[in-house]
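As a representative case, we now present a protein record of this kind.
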Amino acid sequence: MVKLATAYLERQLKHWPKLAEAGLLSGPTDSVLADMVADFKLRHRTGKADVESVRPFLKICPRLGGGYSRYSCDNSSPTSALDQMVNELDRARRDECFIPWAYVLCDYSVTGLDASRQGYSSYKAILAHEHHFIGTTYIDDFTRASRDEIEWWRLAALSKRLNKRLIGASDHFDLSDPNSDLLITMFGLVSRLFIKGLREKSKRGMRGAARRGTCLGKLSLGFTRRIHRDASGNIVRRPDGRPRHEPCIDPVTREYRLMAYELYVKNNWSPHKIVRRFNELKVDGSERWSVLAIKQLLWSPAPIGVFIWNQTRREYDHESGKWVKVRNPRSEWEVFFDPNLAIVPLDLWRAARRKLAEARRKSPLTGRRKSRNQRCATTLFSGTLICEYCGNELTLCRSKVKYKQMFCLNGPTGACGCRLSSSKSTRVIEDCLLGFLRDTFFSDAAFDAVVTNANVFLEEEAHKPQVDTAPMKAEVRQKEAAIAKLVQRVVATDDPDICNGYDKQIAELQRGANRLNAAIRDAEVHNCRPCQPLDVDSAKAYLADLRKILNQEISVAAEAIRTLTGPIKIRQEPMPGNEREVRWIATFSPDFSRLLRQLAKDDPQAAELLVGACDDQQTIEVPLEAIPKYEKLASIARQLREQGMNIQAIATQLGVSWGYAKQILLFADTGRRPKWH
C-alpha cells in the first residue's frame, strides 16, 4: 500500500501541477504516505470516505472520478494493482477528470467471481453515497471489476441509475456508448469462456495428481508430505522446477490418529470425551478440536490408505446468493489406494464406521442439519432458544463480552408474524434458566440423595482389591520383544510369502498387546480411585456459581443443556406495573432421563449416581427478567419499619440513599414501581 500511495502521488503530481502549487498534493514523504495508508485501510474496511478532504479539489478541477483495481492470484505480483491504477489515472487525465486518493479502492488476491469483495463493496458504497462527488468510475479493463456477467450488469445498472459514467482504461469500454449493452454481453461471454477453460485445466491437473497419489491440499491427522523421488532416488520436479511432493505417514501424529479409534471403539469413549482429551494433549499443536472434527477423522477412509478426491464440489446458488456444497456421483470420484499408508487396522476402522452409523441412525436429529450456533455455541443457550411466534432461532444482536444480548431476527420488523420485538441480556437469560434448573435438579432432597449415592459408590470402590498389573506388563514386554524379532526377520528376507506370514504374526501379537495395554490403563485408573467421602456443604460449594462453571466449556455445556431442556420457546408479555417494559417467558419440557441416558453412554455409573434425584417434568414456564434492587429489598425494608425504624435509619441499614429507601417502601406498600427521571 505504501508503493501504491507513492505511485499515486508521483503520477498525480506529474498530471496536475496546479494542485501541487495549491498545496492539495504533496511529495511522497514518510508522514504523508503513512497517513495515506491509514486512510486507505479505513475506507477499505468501512466503505466510508471523508467528504471534506475531497471538497477542496473541486475549486481547481470540477470533475472528479474514482478508480478500482484488482488482481486475483496469490502468485501474481502486487504491482499489478499499481499498474492498473496508473492506467486509470492516465485515462482520467485525458478526460480532464481528477481521481482523489479518497476514491481509490483495490482488492488484492481476490477472485473476480466473488461479488462480496471488501474493496469492491466499499467502492460501490462510496459511489452510491449522495454526498460524494464521483462522476466517473475508471477501471483498467472489463474483467477487473468482475468475472461474473451478472455482477457486471448490476454495476452498469447502478451507474446508470446514479447517472455516472463507467470507463475502461485499457479496453476503452464506455457505459455511455449506445452499444455498451452489446459490449457487456460479449465481454461477459468471453470472461465466462475463460473461467470455464481455466477451471477445466485446473481440474484436469488435480485429477491427474490425485490419480498419481501426489499431494492435493492439506493432509489429515497422521499424515504429512515428503519430496517425491523416482526409482533411482532422484527428485521428481514440476514443470516450474519446484519439487513434487507425495503423502506419507507422520511419525509424530500417527499415534494420535490410532488413539482416537482405540478410545472410541475399545474404550467406548464418546466424541465429546475424545475432544477433551485431544485438547488437553494439544494434538497437532491445536486446542480447537471439536466433535465434528473427531467424527470426520473416525469416518474418513484415509487411515486405511484410501484417499478420495472430488467427492464434493461448490456451486453458486443465484437464488440464495450463496455458495453451496454439492455431492458428486461416485463415477466422478478419483480414488487412490496405498496399503503402505495404512495407520489403523481394517477391523478397527470398520468397527468405528459401524458405531458411527448406528449413532447416526438413532439420533433424532438425523436428516436435520444443525445450525451454526448448535455446532459451535457462543453462549450457554445458543441454538436452544426458539421464537414462539415465528419459529426462528434466537441469535446475538450484540456480541460484546460484557453486554451480550439475544433477539429474534424477525422481531424488530415484524416479519413472518413475529411479535418478539425486544431483546434480552444473556446474563439475565442464563441466571434465570440456570437458577431454575439448579433449584429443580439440585433441591435439598435431591442433593442429599446424590451425595449419599456417591459416598456409597466410593465406599464400594474402596473395598475392592487392588489389581496387580505386573503380570500384564510382563506379558506386554514379551509380545513387544517378539514383534521386534519378527520385524528383523522381515527386513532380512526378500521372499514375499515369508513376509506375509511374519506380517500376520506381528498383527496378532500387536492386537494382543493393545488389549493388554487397555486393560492396564483401566486397572491403573481403578487403583487410583478416590476414597475420601463427600459432604453436602463442600458439594454445594462446587456448584455455588453454576453459570461460571458451565462457561468454562461453553460448547459442551450448551449441548448438554439443550439435551436436558429440549427447544426452549420464548414469548414476551407486558411487565406488571410497568407498561413500557416487557418480559420474556420461556416455555420448555425438561427431560432428565434423556440426559441420564446420554451420560450413561460415557459412564454407566454416572447415571446410577443421579437415579432418583429428579423426576421428569411437564411443560414449564419460567419468566426471564432481572429483579430490580428495590424489589429485592422491599420485604426487608418493611420489616425494619415494623421494628420502629424511620426512613433514614432504614436507608443506613440497607446502604442506600434516603430517597431510594422511600421508593422501596412505596413499592412494598402499593406495588407501584418507581418512575426514574
About this structure: Confidence is low (pLDDT under 50) at residues 601-616. The chain is about 50% helix and 15% strand. The two ends are 52 Å apart (CA to CA). Residues 180-212 form the longest helix (33 residues).
